[in-house]
Design brief:
The structure is a single chain. The chain is α/β, with parallel strands linked by helices and about 425 residues long. It has helices spanning about 25-35, 40-65, 80-85, 95, 110-120, 155-170, 180-185, 200-220, 240-255, 275-280, 300-305, 325-340, 365-370, 375-390, 400-415, and strands at about 70-75, 130, 140, 175, 225, 260-265, 285-290, 310-315, 345-350. It has a 7-stranded parallel β-sheet with strand order 1-4-5-6-7-8-9. Strands 2-3 form a two-stranded antiparallel ribbon. Strand 7, helix 11 (about 300-305) and strand 8 form a beta-alpha-beta unit. The termini are far apart.
């Protein structure tokens, strides 16, 4: 199969941006609601989210992510896994028995549900919280058993896109955790029999993703990002060949309908593996994003299978606060451009939610150390710089490459790095 994109993909993008706000506005709003809901109702959290989303879109546009679908719409109240689970109506039986019902997350009822799921109630245990891959970020583990009712709820995904378009003029890119990763991250419900595998619900879940994608297409959304980061990790209790076979079947089904947005599948947090890349290449997805910070460059067989579709090279790391080695990144991108048959987009290796917003806000940081550091805004600037060099020629960003090399030389000679 060879997908033909209905809309072009931007030359520079990121897989996500810090959602909490530069002054921790979302954290403060949630804590105020949790401590004094009568004075700070759920709507106050939604108002804060709306302000942060508009601020983020405008800010990223100003930083250079100006093309359609370059900006991911990934500002969630708590975390992206819980947000996706709510889009599927995945509500454990103990919460249903207590009167809770599925709700779109960007509603007062949705905030109340998110609060109950993430914090529990006076008599209900919350969802388990655990680490997000090999980072210090955490997520709430969805509970999906063989009998857990599921239903599609695209309302908040559509509202975020429409609001961003109407308030800023930007065409954003909704983000969902992909179906394979979602079920590998999930656990059975607490009342399910030992050995129950959420992964066995993949066909049911793919049915709902198809419904979601159809609704997003009807709303005028050109691109959707599905994050399949579990492909770069191990220890799932499901054999790798079973995962790859399921991945192929899932994305063959997801990419087959014509009434859907174009699909970007992103694999961050490590090497996607040639088996996963070649499996996805057999489907009709339109674009693939891979981690080239910690993952390997795709081999000739994978590139040949991928054909002329866009490939996002994630050369800017999102898990540490250090600057990207621009010379090394430019060499990686140059090799990829020379060997790939289709267009190469510059991106981040992971979402940028693991780093603060802007190093310029760190007024107390040692100036020598400060120039070594890149927070989210600086990493976006690196993506934009590398994209310009890749598309317009490296001579157009010679000053930026030279400055980065000088900073690296100063750091290498600094007493703090030679103790």
């Amino acid at each position: 199969m060879t997908a033909i994109s209905k809309t072009s993909f931007p030359g520079a993008t990121i897989l996500g941006y810090p959602r909490i706000g530069p002054n921790r506005e979302l954290k403060k709003a949630l804590e105020a609601y949790w401590s004094k809901p009568a004075e700070n109702p759920a709507q106050s959290v939604l108002d804060t989210l709306a302000q942060l989303r508009e601020r983020t879109v405008r800010h990223l546009n100003d930083l250079g992510l100006a093309d359609a679908a370059a900006i991911p719409a990934d500002t969630f109240a708590v975390d992206q896994t819980l947000d996706t689970a709510l889009a599927l109506g995945a509500l454990p039986a103990r919460f249903r028995a207590d009167g809770f019902r599925p709700a779109a997350p960007d509603t007062p009822q949705g905030i109340e549900l998110i609060t109950a799921l993430s914090r529990g109630t006076d008599h209900l245990e919350p969802l388990e919280m655990t680490k997000w891959f090999d980072t210090n970020y955490h997520y709430y583990v969805p509970e999906i058993g063989p009998d857990t009712p599921l239903s599609a709820h695209p309302e908040s995904l559509i509202e975020r896109f429409v609001t961003a378009r109407d308030t800023t003029g930007a065409i954003t890119r909704p983000v969902l955790v992909g179906p394979v990763t979602l079920l590998l991250l999930a656990r059975p419900e607490t009342t399910d029999a030992p050995g129950t595998q959420p992964f066995n619900r993949l066909n049911d879940v793919v049915d709902l993703y198809i419904q979601l994608l159809t609704a997003l297409k009807d709303a005028g959304i050109p691109w959707v990002e599905l994050d399949e980061h579990a492909l770069a990790a191990e220890g799932w209790g499901v054999p790798r060949d079973t995962i790859i076979e399921a991945l192929t079947k899932a994305y063959t089904r997801l990419s087959y309908p014509s009434d859907r947005p174009d699909l970007l599948v992103a694999v961050g947090y490590g090497d996607a593996g040639e088996d996963a890349q070649r499996a996805l290449a057999t489907t009709d997805i339109e674009a693939l994003a891979i981690d080239l910070d910690r993952g390997a460059e795709p081999g000739a067989a994978a590139l040949e299978a991928w054909g002329e579709r866009p490939l996002v090279g994630g050369v800017v790391g999102g898990r540490t606060v250090w600057r990207t080695d621009l010379e090394k990144a430019s060499e990686t991108l140059g090799r990829l451009k020379d060997t790939a048959a289709g267009p190469v987009t510059v991106g981040t290796a992971t979402p940028l939610l693991h780093v603060p917003h802007d190093v310029e806000r760190e007024t107390a940081l040692d100036p020598d150390v400060k120039e070594w550091v890149a927070f989210a805004d600086q990493k976006v600037a690196e993506v934009v710089t590398l994209s310009r060099g890749l598309t317009e020629g490296w001579s157009t960003v010679a000053a930026e490459l030279s400055k980065d090399a000088q900073i690296r030389s100063r750091r290498a000679a600094h007493p703090a790095t030679n103790r």
